[in-house]
Amino acid sequence: KRSPAVPETWTRTTCVYCGVGCQMDVASAGGKVVAVRPADHPTNRGHLCVKGRYAYEFNHAPDRVTTPMIRRDGAWREASWDEALDFIADRLRAIIAESGPDAVGVLGSARASNEENYLAQKFARVVLGTNNVDCCARVCHTPSAKALKAMLGTGAAANCFDDIEIAGAFLLCGVNPTENHPVVGARIRQAVLRGARLVVVDPRRTELAELADVHLALRPGTNVPLFNAMAAVLIEEGLLDQAFLAERVTGFDDFAAFVAAYAPERVAGDCGVSAADIRAAARIYAGAGAAMCFHGLGMTEHLQGTEGVMTLINLALLTGNLGKPGAGINPLRGQNNVQGSAQMGCDPATLTGSQLIKDAGPRFEAAWGCRLPATHGLDLLQMMDAARAGRLKALWAFGYDIYLSLANEAATRDALAGLDLVIVQDLFLNETARAFGTVFLPAASFFEKDGTFMNSDRRVQRIRGAVPPPGQAQPDWWIIQALAGRLGHAQGFAFDSPRAVWDEVRALWPDGAGLSYERIARESLHWPCPDEDHPGTPVLHQSRFPIGQTAALAPIGFVPTPETTDETYPLLLTTGRTLYHFNAGTMTGRTPNTALRPTDTLDMAPADAAQLGLADGEPVRVHSRHGTATLPLHVTAQVQPGQLFATFHCPELFVNRLTSTVRDRQVRAPEYKVTAVRVERG
Ligand code: SF4
């Protein structure tokens, strides 16, 4: 039920949900958020989706935790900030004294600001003395960042959302923007309705697939051979940008010889599509003048996630779809500030600005007045492995329900159960806190603090507090500084505002130096923006790549996932998100959006439901080699026979009991997109 309160104040801020980063005005009255309306801004042009516009009532939910808590003898008890911080400081000192600083890990958050993520990784490195710091980018787009950085030199989207209206064609790969990035999805839809060509590569018949010139409904796990086949067509049919190849690309001859083995007629059957459709898709992508590629987690959350993105970059290099408006390889980031959390240095191998420790380390040491830790840090998945092995003893997680959202619940449970200290910092007692938390620190929401977010197209935007935090809740940046002070590092953690933190970020990150609070308040700016007179860089790679004048094509062989169907597990399950909810449901699950979509479902093709004698709406038990979950069945022609789709927003259904331990070969993102299962009446 909507609050009848009359707005007293309107505050301009940035939506916290997806990586589009829509600008919105938040109405407050009596210290509460009472309405949200879209802002007319280049990012969202006066639109918001159902999440940004209506999913705000979580902020004042009755079960919001507003006091620090410590679990003693199995029960949560309220504590003062002094007690909670002293408790944590004592435990961390003891763990580090006994096991060393690498026995502790820190996880930043896509819901925290850039400034807070910067402080989180600085805390890990300076206060704790470890590079064990990571964030949720590990499980979604680290494969994109790795592939883009390795091949082109910048681990972020090549172009910006403003290019959607310029592109002559779209190649959408493993991404469903209508549901997961709705304002961008609507802009793509409008562009297609005006005449832009559209290729959709997705196992499901999504709303945009209905509009597509070609829909390649591939078998999950076959991205690499499919995009190799498109590359083979480009070369065989001469659909190449010869000038771009001559000036900007190396390795053509070896690459051409390599992909000749992936001719569509050879691989189409394995990919579950027709050779003619692969050829048609390649012709559309190459023939548009400028074609914009967007990809999502259907590309990255695979055994070959990083390598799959590399096969997309090959297509852009062959056709010259880089370094010009209306083109580019563009990961659509799932969570609003996931780009920012990794970019700020919540990554074991890189410092702020994705600068390698080995290159930028001395500058940071001089600025921070310390020696950086010498040992290589652990990423999130390696932290879980180390916890299971007894080497990691403590974990501090900001705004991240790792127990619910990591793949393979059994493995995550084993890891978290082995820790001596689990610090959860969030708005609510999430599943990680309920099952494994030692200390809970109540955080301010994005409605209640200042700072910046970084969206999918490298735009840095302000968030502004519209209401005060409830009870004793505090912004993450305050909490990090308070704990640093307890551990003897008040100096270096004495910022009086997020703006002061951001100024330190700008001093250490050359590509962000021009992004002052004053400028981003009045201009829409994309990094790189190296000084305050620089206009920002909406399109990367226009005259050269950061790695040099040329980029190299990458021959990528196909390595099938071990997660295959057999007689016992004959169906392939893919997991993903829905329009109405966001990730673990911690926020949207406490809003009226639950009335629009009350539960996760298992989506099944009508033919499979008929064969199994199952009816729409009935509960079904899903068994994988890794676990079992019970969900209501949703019979829909959106999924193909032999395949299933489930969302993972409801804690009580816990879909990650099913998912496997398979990880990306290069950066260890879990393979959420392919799990062999069987289904029976629940
Ligand atoms: Fe928020 Fe994304 Fe919806 Fe925009 S499209 S309102 S950023 S969830």
Folded structure, characterized:
With about 675 residues, the protein is of the alpha/beta class. The protein has 3 domains: about 70-140 and about 335-510, 3-Layer(aba) Sandwich (Rossmann fold), CATH 3.40.50; about 155-330, 3-Layer(aba) Sandwich (Dimethylsulfoxide Reductase, domain 2); about 570-660, Barwin-like endoglucanases, CATH 2.40.40. The strands form 7 sheets. A 7-stranded mixed sheet has the order 5-4-18-17-16-6-7, sandwiched between helices. The chain has a 6-stranded mixed β-barrel with strand order 22-26-23-25-24-27. The chain has a 5-stranded parallel sheet with strand order 10-9-8-12-13. Strand 2 (about 25-30) and strand 3 (about 30-40) form a beta hairpin. Helix 8 packs antiparallel against helix 11. The longest helix is centred in the N-terminal third of the chain and has 19 residues, at about 80-100. It starts with 8 loop residues before the first strand and ends with a strand. The mean pLDDT is about 95. Bound molecules: iron/sulfur cluster (SF4). Iron/sulfur cluster binds near residues 15, 20, 48, 51 and 52.
